[in-house]
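Follow-up to my post from last week.
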Amino acid sequence: MTDRKTARPTMDDVADLAGVSQMTVSRVMSGKGYISSEVRDRVNVAALEIGYVQNRLARGLRSEKSSLIAVVLPTLGNTVFTEALSGITDALTAQSFRPVFGLTEYSEDREYELVRDLLSWRPSGIVLAGLEHSDQTRKAIAASGVRVAEIMDIDGEPISTAFGLSQKAAGQVTAQHMLDKGHRRFIYVGSQSGADLRAGKRLAGFRQTVREAGGTMMSELISALPSSMIEGRRMTAEILSGPQRPDAIYYSNDDLAAGGIMHCLAEGVSIPDEIAMAGFNGLPYLDALPIQLTTIKTPRYDIGLKAGQLLASQSEIRPNAAPQLVDLGFELNIGQTC
Amino acid sequence: MTDRKTARPTMDDVADLAGVSQMTVSRVMSGKGYISSEVRDRVNVAALEIGYVQNRLARGLRSEKSSLIAVVLPTLGNTVFTEALSGITDALTAQSFRPVFGLTEYSEDREYELVRDLLSWRPSGIVLAGLEHSDQTRKAIAASGVRVAEIMDIDGEPISTAFGLSQKAAGQVTAQHMLDKGHRRFIYVGSQSGADLRAGKRLAGFRQTVREAGGTMMSELISALPSSMIEGRRMTAEILSGPQRPDAIYYSNDDLAAGGIMHCLAEGVSIPDEIAMAGFNGLPYLDALPIQLTTIKTPRYDIGLKAGQLLASQSEIRPNAAPQLVDLGFELNIGQTC
DNA sequence: CTGAAAGCGCTAACAT
DNA sequence: ATGTTAGCGCTTTCAG
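User reply:
Got it. Predicted complex:
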C-alpha cells in the first residue's frame, strides 16, 4: 500500500482500517446520509490515524462541480480590490469554498483568457469586476452555466447579480456638493489611461452635474500610469503651476487626491481656499491625514462579502431569476477639502 | 449529446467531430507528443466549434498533480502581502498555474486548517508566509510531498526554500543608522499584539544593536489592532504627550510611521529635531509624503515572483536538495526623519 | 443505515 | 504519428 512516497491514502485505505465499505467512508466525510455514530467515530479515527486527506479533484470530477470560486479582478495594486477580495475570501472560507484567481490589469482580452482558463476548474461560481465584458466572455460564461456575481458597479446590465453602487450617482453627488460649496471651474484627474470604466462613469456623472449647473470642466487629465499617491501629487503640482488654476480638482480616487493634499502640504498651498478637492473610496488611511479629504465612502468589503455569500450559498442554481442589481450604496464624507 | 444544459463537451465530442481518437485530442490540448499539423488544426477547429473547455479536475485526478498552487498568507490588509501575491500571481500565470488561497489572520491554527484543506486540491506547490509553522502543519506538508516556498523571512530553518530577507539584520541596520545620527533613547511602536513574528525579529535586532551601543529602549508599545496609519498617528500622539519623550521612534512598519509623520505635520512637531523616526518596507506612497521617511526597502514583489517561479517551474521535485535560504536583501532608504 | 457497481473526463503506458 | 486499454478517487444510483 504505502508504496514509495506517492501512495497518498484513499478512502479505500480508511475503509479497510475501519472495517467498513469505501462508500461509508465517503458518507462520513461528506456528512451526507445517515451513519450510526459508532461507525462514524471508527471512520474518523481511522482517517486521522493514516492521515487521510480527501481528494477534491476526484470529488469534483464525479460530482461535476468543484467547491472553487473563480475570482477575476483588475489588479491587487488598488486597495479597493484587495478589500473586496478579503470580503469574498471571508465569505467563501465560512462555507469551505476557496477562491482561485487571476488579474486582468484592466484588459478585456486578459479577462476573457482568464475566464476561459478558470472555467476549466469547473468552479461553482465566478466573480467579475464591473459590468462590461466582451461578448466572448459572456458566451463562455453562459455556456458553462456557472453562477456569476459582478462587483463594484450597478450602472448597466448585469449578467446575473451585481453588487455595488452607482458610480455615476457618486460622481453626481460629489459634483453637487462641490457646486454647493461655490466651486465652478473644475479639473478632473484620472489614471490608468481611462481603462478603469467605473472611474469613467463617475466622471460622466460629475461632468453632467457640473454642466447642468453652469459650471466648467476646464480639463480632464488622465495619466497613463496606475493610480498612486505620487502620481496624484505630480499631476496636482502640474495643475497648480499651470496658467489657469481651477477652483477645484476632482480626483478619480483617494490615492490621487491624497497625493494632491501632500503637494499642498509640502508647498504651503491652502486647501480649500486656493484649491478645493474631492476623491472617491473613503480609504481608511484618510483619517490619519492632517487634512480630511471630502470623498465618497464605498462598501468594498461588504460588496465582496455579499458576492461571496451568494456564490457559496448552498441553494441550487436559482430558478433562473431575472438579472438583479444590488445597490449597496455609498456615503458622502464631507471633510475639509471642499 | 447536447442533453439538457448539463452536457459540457468532452474530448470525446471533439474527437468525434474531428474524426480522430480521444487520445489525439488530449495530445493536442496538452501539447505533448507529436501530432501532424494537419490533425492538430482539425482538432483545434473542432474544439472551438463546440466550445470545448478542458476539465482540469479530471486531468489533475489522472495525473496526480494539479496546476494549482496553494497560497497561505496572514492578511490582505497589509500592502506587503498584496504585493507579494501580485508577484506570485504573475509568476504562476506565466506558466498557466493558478493560485488558490486562504488567509490566516496571523493564527497558526488557522494556518494549519487552511494548509490541510488546500492540500485536498492536490496543488503542486504551496506558499507560506514566514518560517514559523506548527508541527502539525509541517507534518501535513511533509506527508503530502508538496513543494514549498516560504516567503518574507530568512531568519530560521526553512522547510525547503525560503525567499526573503533577514528581518533581524533589517532591525540592526535601522538601529545602527539611528545611533549614528546621534539618537540614544528609543521607543518601539508595533501592532497586531505582536502576532507578526517578522516584526518581532526586527525588534530583537534593533534592541540588540541599541543596547550594545549603550542606547536605551525606553519602551515598546504594541497595539492590539492591525497596523494602520491612523493607529500609528494615535500612538505617536500618545508618546509625544507623555512625560518623557524619546529621541526617536522605531515603527514596526511604514504605515505606522506614516501615521507618526501625519501627527507631527498636523501638530507642528518638527522632525527629526523634536522626534526622529524610522519605518520598514519602503512602500511606494512614502515618496508622495511631504517628509521623506527613513525606512528599509524590501523586495516584496520580487519575493513573490521568485517563489511563484520556483513552484511553477517544470522541474521535477528537485532531487531533495537541502533546505535553502534565498536572501533577496534590503536597502536602507535614508530620508529626512532621522 | 450500509454496500456494490458504474463511471465522471482525462492521461500513463503500451501498442502499432 | 496515432490508437487502445486501464484506471486515478471519488459520488451517483440502485439495492438491500
